[in-house]
Amino acid sequence: MKCALVGSRFFGASVFEALRKDEGINFTSVVAPAADDRLALAARAAGLEVHVLENPKIVPGHAIADGTDLIIAADTHARVSDEALARSRLGGIGYHPSLLPRHRGIAAVEWTILEGDPIAGGSIYHLADGWDAGAIAAQDWCFVEKGETARELWERSLAPMGLALLSRVVQQARLTGSIPAEQQDTRYATRAPMLRKSVVLTEDASPAITSLIVSVTGPDRHGIVSLLADRAQRFDANWAASRMTRFGGEFAGTVHLEVPRERADALAEALRALAASGLQVVIARSDAATVAAGLRGVELELVGEDRIGIVSSLTRILAERGVSIESMHTELLRSGISGKQTFKVGAHLLLPAGLTLDTLKAELGALAGEMMLDIALGEPQAATPRH
Question: Given this model, what pLDDT does residue 334 score?
């Protein structure tokens, strides 16, 4: 069975690693939104070429290899085009973390919690026109535990369920040459759009980790990112963030790795050994334990249409409340279709002991409503790999 995988992040990489171990499954195409996405890194580490999307909203036909039997979508926001589906003998399937047609949309798990659903589930559906509207190939369900968050529900049950369902349907397709298809009953369809202007604030558990900020430069060539990813995985390091580019034939990249403190020295030594391959490696190190007593670490993400005053308004609120900005990255993206610019901010904040979580949540919520922004504050997940 020749498969093409379109996906991203942790779940996309997990599907790739799980299915390629299944009997008779080979990947002919892997499609990811960025070269440093977790799925892209996993595929390259396995010796496969990766198609990086030029337009993050659509998968073109040429991204799918000729002779493909089945397209699998796993955690992707890109629509698989009709041209791409036409290259696949059996079309395409995807995993959605709800009992379709309930909670069609990008925030299905979050809406499961918000609606107080006593049960949740997952669906394998056929890729087709409409938002998660294709025929159902397989479903499973689970109970929602009292007080459970969306992240906890996803990690405990819905992600493992997705892996099991995809494996079952792909193997059925391999053995029978067909995929079950039961039309969704639209009478029970509900929408699960992205949550807007919401703030979630939780305290940092301050895990025993060390942060390594690794800067790498050298003549550009194939495999540099794979070398870094291989060493990070070897020492159980979390690939927290990265920025990489090419200037005049030279590769330049910075990677933030979070590694168990007892393995930090060994990882740093392994990274410095890359100098033997012609790369210049500089490493800056900080331990989570160096945060002053009484401070609480929080990660912030902000996304919205670009306008004057976003950063000044945000930093003014933080300064007035005595919040320190430990690190911050900003990015400006332009849509090729609408021409509008989207502004993104990612930051790690240190909150003083006298600041209540509810107070900061309310003030940032007011900023989100005033400037039409999506703002989220959450606990860093050191033990969970990120893209």
Answer: 57
Three-state secondary structure call for residue 346: strand
* The pair of three-digit structure tokens given for residue 123, joined into one six-digit string: 């669906």
CB 84 within 8 A of CB 63: yes
153 within a domain of the structure (yes/no): yes
Residue at 271 is within a domain = yes
Q: Which two tokens stand for residue 64?
A: 């799918």
Same domain, 284 and 305: no
- Give the pLDDT score at 185: 94
Kindly give the pairing relationship between strand 209-219 and strand 58-59: unpaired
**Which segments of the chain are extended strands (E)?**
2-7, 26-32, 51-52, 58-59, 70-74, 79-80, 92-96, 119-126, 136-143, 209-219, 238-247, 250-260, 280-287, 296-305, 324-334, 341-351, 373-378
Residue 196 pLDDT exceeds 60 = no
Q: Are residues 336 and 228 in the same domain?
A: no
Do 108 and 166 fall within a single domain? yes
Q: What is the pLDDT of residues 305-330, one digit of tens each?
A: 777 777 888 888 888 888 888 777 77
CA atoms within 13 A on the CB side of 136: 19
CA distances, 237 to each of 264, 295, 379 (Å): 9, 24, 18
Whether 203 is covered by a domain: the verdict is no
Q: Residue 16's Cα: distance from chain center in Å?
A: 14
Which residues touch 309 (CB under 8 Å, ≥6 apart)? 371
What confidence tens digit (pLDDT) does each residue in 167-178 have?
Answer: 999 999 999 999
Amino acid identity of residue 189, one-letter, is A
pTM above 0.70, yes or no: no
Q: Residue 103: which CATH number?
A: 3.40.50.170
pLDDT of residue 340: 57
Q: What CATH number is associated with residue 354?
A: 3.30.70.260
| 198 assigned to some structural domain | no
